[in-house]
Amino acid sequence: MVFFKNQFANVVEWEEFRDDMIFWKWSNREIKKGSRLIIRPGQDAIFINNGKIEGIFADEGDYHIDSQIIPFLSTLKGFKFGFNSGMRVEVLFVNTKEFTVKWGTKNAINIPTAKLPGGMPVRANGTFNFNVNDYIALIDKIAGVKNSYYVEDVKLRITSILDQLLMKWISKEGKDMFNLQANAFDIAKGIREDLDMEIINSGMTITGFHIMSFSYPEEIQHMINKTASHEMIGDLNKYQQVSMTDGISSGKVKGGGAASDMAGMMMGMNIANEMMKNINKNQDATAQANNPTQETQRLNFCPNCGEKTGGANFCSKCGQKLV
């Protein structure tokens, strides 16, 4: 009967492996005597019997199931293979790596703000990371009813609540609606904690959440840029001059050469006036430093009799001239 010894033997391995697959279940087949288990790098193999974990094998390698695996199964240690019968269990293969997923808001999120009655429309994008950390919860909530699970399944679950979490954490603590990027770290930290609570009961954990950028509608972004330019210039006249220069260089100041020449002349006059004002201010400051006013030269006490002068030109006691 040696000829028939291993004719029913099979290989238990992850047959449909994909990088974006979180787990895959080998099921609905009997494991015969002489069968082998193959575990590749980045995989764990979990033997399940009647919904309960019999054993978890994490080391990569090629194993003989009857001699190297069964002795370590919790309730199947003494299982004996028959000639025509085998062991019917499920083997769940789990991808142990950390997954990185890109996300982005499909539509603008209207964040409530007092400055805009309809809310501030904001878009955002970034990445999040997760991995499997609890096999019991994973089997109880997902793997018990599914034969495979993909990164896209987790992404859909995350993005379905992401808009609400962005709104929650952007609105919290009065974040500056016009400079959200400055608060991106704090916003991302809060969202990561909330997302982790959302999926932790399913045997997975969010290991990282990052916001790459926020974006606004074109008209809002234009307003932000103008405001930033104004603050950098710090002077309305100079801001007007820069705007006029931009208009000439971009061709927005129209009306032929005369219009452009007139605009240029006005701009030059304004710049010249500003330069003269700055020169006069500097000259006045220099003159004041070199020639102190009379008030700063007056003595507080009479040098003749010591009487307090009170800033007068002459001493009230002895008549000494003080200036």
**Uncertain regions: pLDDT < 50 for 5+ in a row?**
1-5
Question: Which second-level CATH architecture of the largest domain applies?
Answer: 2-Layer Sandwich
What number of domains?
Answer: 4
- Assembly level: single chain
**How much strand content do the residues show?**
25-35%
Helical fraction equals 25-40%
Please give the CATH class of the largest domain: Alpha Beta
Question: What tags apply to this protein structure?
Answer:
323 residues; alpha+beta; Tetrahydropterin Synthase, Chain A; 4 domains; five-stranded antiparallel beta sheet; four-stranded antiparallel beta sheet; 8 helices; 25% strand
Quick summary:
The chain is an alpha+beta fold. Helix content is 37%, strand content 25%.
Description of the molecule:
The longest helix has 35 residues, at 256-290. This protein has helices at 65-69, 135-143, 151-171, 184-199, 218-233, 236-250, 256-290, 294-297; strands at residues 11-12, 21-26, 30-31, 36-39, 43-49, 52-57, 61-64, 87-88, 90-95, 99-104, 109-113, 116-132, 148-150, 204-215. A hairpin with a 2-residue loop joins strand 5 (43-49) and strand 6. The N and C termini lie far apart (133 Å). The strands form 4 sheets. It has a 5-stranded antiparallel β-sheet. Residues 1-5 have low confidence and may be disordered. The protein has 323 residues and is of the alpha+beta class. Helix 3 (151-171) packs across helix 4 (184-199) and helix 6 (236-250) packs antiparallel against helix 7 (256-290). It is built from 8 helices and 14 strands. The chain has 4 domains: 2-95; 99-219, Tetrahydropterin Synthase, Chain A; 244-278; 293-323, no CATH class.
